[in-house]
Specification:
Length: about 120
Amino acid sequence: QLHLVESGGGLVQPGGSLRLSCQSFGVTLDDYAIGWFRQAPGKEREGISCISASGFTTNYADSVRGRFTISKDNAKSTAYLQMNSLKSEDTAEYYCAADALGYCSLSAMYDYWGQGIQVTVSS
């Protein structure tokens, strides 16, 4: 059973950076695609980035492309989301998810989900 735990969230000023981590406990991530999603109060969950199991394919939502970078370290069973040039509209609960089929997708069709972590961008 794949158990995902996010870390690295918190409060940051506009223009700042954060790096979110998504660590798998019990199972390595070699065969899993990872997706990052977020949900702001009153809004639907949004897929913002994904990476295929191999790491060769990545994708980003238009809202974060050029500012966020996804990566995956299979040896550490950890995926990352580097977030730069943060804006107030990036404030949300962020979730990582894993898909056993291994394909990068921004849709919410993932098998396993973390518990979420808050990111607040405010001065």
